[in-house]
Amino acid sequence: xxxxxxxxxxxxxxxxxxxxxxxxxxxxxxxxxxxxxxxxxxxxxxxxxxxxxxxxxxxxxxxxxxxxxxxxxxxxxxxxxxxxxxxxxxxxxxxxxxxxxxxxxxxxxxxxxxxxxxxxxxxxxxxxxxxxxxxxxxxxxxxxxxxxxxxxx
Length: 153
Description:
Elements: H1 4-33, H2 38-73, H3 81-114, H4 117-147
Helix pairs in contact: 1-2, 1-4, 2-3, 2-4, 3-4
C-alpha cells in the first residue's frame, strides 16, 4: 500500500486545523476583546487552553511528523530551500505558541478569574498580537508549501 497520499492528506488536514482553527479563535478573541463582559472573556480563556491541548498541539505534531515523513519518502533532502524555510517557520510558530502564547493564556485566565477586566483585556490583546504573528508565519509556510522556492530559482 502506498502511504504517501494518506500522509499528505494528514499533513494538509492538520495544517488546515492549525491555521483555520487559529484564525477562527483569533476572530472570536477579537470580538471578546471588544466586550465589557468579563464572563465572555473568562469563557474564551478557558476555551483557549482546552483547544491548545486537544486541537492545536496534536495538529502541530501531525504537521511536523507527516512533513518529515513526506521529505524522507521523496529522497530525504532536508537542505532544499523550501524545506529549510518550512522547518524554520514551524519552529518559530511552535516556539511562539509554546513560550509566549501559552503563558499569555495562563495570565489571561488568572486575570479573568480575579475579576480584573482591564488586565484581562490587556492580556487578551497581547495574545491577539502574538497570534497575529503566528498566523503570518503560518501563511508564509503555506505559501512556501505551495510554491516551493529553491535556491537555484
